[in-house]
Amino acid sequence: MDLKELANEVEAISDIYARKHAIERTGTWYLLKLQEEVGELTQAFLMKTGQSRDKGRSAAELDADFRAELADVLCQVLLLARHHGIDLDAAVAEKWLVWNPKPIESEHTTRSTRDL
Question: For residues 3 and 37, what is the distance between their CA atoms, to the nearest angstrom?
Answer without folding.
Answer: 19
